[in-house]
Write a structure and sequence with these properties.
Shape: elongated
Distance between the termini: 72 Å
Radius of gyration: 26 Å
Structural class: alpha/beta
Strand order of the largest sheet: 3-4-5-6-7-8-9-10
Largest sheet: 8 strands, parallel, barrel
Length: 464
Amino acid sequence: MLEFNKRTNLLTQAKYKYQLQDVEEPNLYRELYDYTSIPKVAFNNRVVPMNMPDEIWMTDTTFRDGQQSTSPFTVEQIVHLFKLLSRLGGPNGMVRQSEFFIYTKKDQEAVRRCQELGLKFPEVTSWIRATEKDFELVKQMGVKETGILVSCSDYHIFKKMKLNRRQAMDKYLGVVKSALEHGIRPRCHFEDITRADFYGFVVPFATELMRLSRESGVPIKVRACDTMGYGVNYPGVAMPRSVQGIMYGLRHYADVPAELLEWHGHNDFYKVVTNAATAWLYGCSSVNCAMLGIGERTGNCPLEAMAVEYASLRGDTNGMDLTAITEIADYFEREIGYSVPPRTPFVGRSFNVTRAGVHADGLLKDEEIYNIFDTTLILNRPASVAVDSHSGLAGVAHWINSYFRLSDELKVDKRDPICQKLKAQVDELYAQGRNTCMGDEELENMLKDEDFELYRVFSDHRRR
């Protein structure tokens, strides 16, 4: 049977409708996950087409999944970060939603305070257990959408919940129906999808959810959760590890619209950013992230990474204010006491800092030679040089120019006498056995001692 596919504008063979396969023994994919060795990546050379949605965006889980990995935030900290989230996402809702726990009085106060800000984006959503009491709590908080855990691998269904697939599906569908009866939009978190029987459970369950959505007229979201970071984006990789295969299958076989599809990944195998971008490319509108990538174990997909990834894929920021990324990182370190690893892209203190003298010389001649993009313009983070025994005169000159943010008419050249004097002091310290980088305050004091009038001119310029 043929039918016209309005998504592709092609005649296609009628899609096979997958039915639940209610097995007696769990499918644990032992050929891939034997637990005593590194999980294997298998290929079947089946390739699915790219299908980038018309709109793509990010959602945030900093105050839910992210907060589980850090010291609990205070209400004031949550409100401040929520404002920065809104600024980063901009007026077009590039950070469309943010999910919260709502169990404690502190959680509830944070939700109310963020709601009272009256910001269009991000929308406040919740995450709950599937109980009647929790549904009532969502209603009381005035939250329109909530996440619901619907674990989908046999590891969870058989080994954790002690159910079979039919029992699990019936239980989940009952919970979703209860949410609909309470007037709440369900967001179903398909936990552990990269170890799940995709055609035997995931697609049949998603198909039933879409049927419920059509009957009720309420959008039901599917969040594909790569809970253990097993997702792989290599072409031709076999299920259940194929990110693009998961996106294609949910779109093509379960008829999940792109705008109701979300990817949630973890970074256990260093693939979290590329997997999220792959989900976008193959039909998923939304990727779920956390600020600075915080989250349990290796963390969630970093929000700042996907903001930059969006700009690289679309060619513009669509209203995002990327300077908020720098303020988020600064706030985490200054007010929350979270230590950002210094070499973390875009947010670490050293991400655009060079130590090599030859690199410093290149930066001094033309910043573009050794800086990934105009980090001052885009992130409000000037490229800089860490001064140590390898920095040379160019490193000292670049430190002066960047630290004091000197205009072109004030910038010093590496042949300037002040650079030679500072380098002589630095070289003497390392000759005496120093083995750490020079701090900004140390170098500032050296400059002050060598030429106070020049220091005063530079300092006045920096304060403008």
